[in-house]
Amino acid sequence: QHYYITNNLSSSETSMKALCIIVLVLYEQLITSHDLTYTTLRFGANGYILIEQDLGPLHEALTACSWVKRMRSEHSYYQYWLTYGVNSNSHELGLTDMGRILMFGDPTSYTRPTETTGQWHSICFTWSYSTRTRLVYFDGKQIGTEETPSGRKLVGGGTLLLGQYHSKYGVGTISSPYYFGGELYDTNIYSSQLSASEVENMFTRGRCGNYSQTFGDKVLISWQDILQETRQGSVSDVVLEECATNHTHPEEEKEREGRAHDDSGKWDFLRGRTFYNRIISEDFFEDMTGRLDLIAQFANHTIDDALILHLDKHHSDGRSRNETEEDSASESEEMTDAAEDLLSLVLETDNWDFLTHKTLYNQVVTDRLLSDVSARLDLVAEFVGHRCDNALIEHLERNH
Hints:
- By secondary structure, this protein is α+β, with helices and mostly antiparallel strands.
- Helix content is 33%, strand content 19%.
- The chain has helices at residues 2-37, 196-204, 223-228, 241-245, 250-257, 282-296, 305-314, 321-331, 337-343, 367-381, 390-399; strands at residues 39-43, 48-51, 61-69, 80-85, 93-96, 101-103, 106-107, 120-128, 133-138, 141-147, 159-162, 183-190, 219-221, 231-232, 235-239.
- Strands 1, 3, 8, 9, 10, 12, 13 and 15 form an 8-stranded antiparallel beta sheet that branches. It has a 7-stranded antiparallel beta sheet with strand order 7-6-5-4-11-2-14, with no helix packed on it.
- It starts with a helix and ends with a helix.
């Protein structure tokens, strides 16, 4: 009898442990799903995601939809956020941030929407082999259509590229002037031609509505899949915090984005890779002080992809100190010792990621801007020895 009770307790303990493990796994999946659902991707000048997946299910029908934020205007309608390249045919598929679509080497006739930057728009492209029609939608409304050649199907064996333009298989064919340089959210590729009403619903539900998750097996490549892909160059996560609490209609979001600048999120930059989850140290602040001094040399310049790329290239740990010093000497033989020391800093590439935050990106470098950043860092410096986590950031948000 005694043995039976002991053995029974052991079995109960085992069951309890198993139950705890299951709960923890489910909780982790829930948290991971939430994080993936409300994350956008910001692409820099050299940033891209290469997807080498069998696109056989798309040979006879496809739909590609995404929320797209255009953030540069160097090329009026040649900034490609998605391209599909194969060796046998150029321009198999290409989608730009202004609704210009290439398929089978031919552009799709469309009514060009009003050019805007810094605003989210829903862009969808649909095609079917059986109907021989391709359609372009912008914010839920059809803006273009074209008939495709009889017997023409999507060629397989290619590569899908997000953030850059390429016309053939692989990243060796990237045409850098036509890079995207904006943000994507909820990008999905479907193995059927979605209807006009489905595309319209995708827009009217808003980008926080998760309508794309209702299509089940029709989704060949999901946003969650894309977020798990390997990233190259400058591709960073940006959290859509408003989606966690508000499900706002796109028109209301546009109105909100057009309001005067609100600095309530001025501590969000601490959630970037440069700061988040790191122990705050004196060495770190000395390093950041050097960075601000270096940025000050670019007074009256805009903090854009070109400047960040320059800093990544010339002032990161991806280059040796000798290489940096040689470049510094060639730039100016009369450079002061202090300036030369700044230009010879060997810094971590990730530490320029903070410049992509909305409070700094696209801002002009001024004494006032640098003073504001320095003041915020001085406040953070009071927590030397602490970890830069959510608790600390929330404290700063409440009290400063």
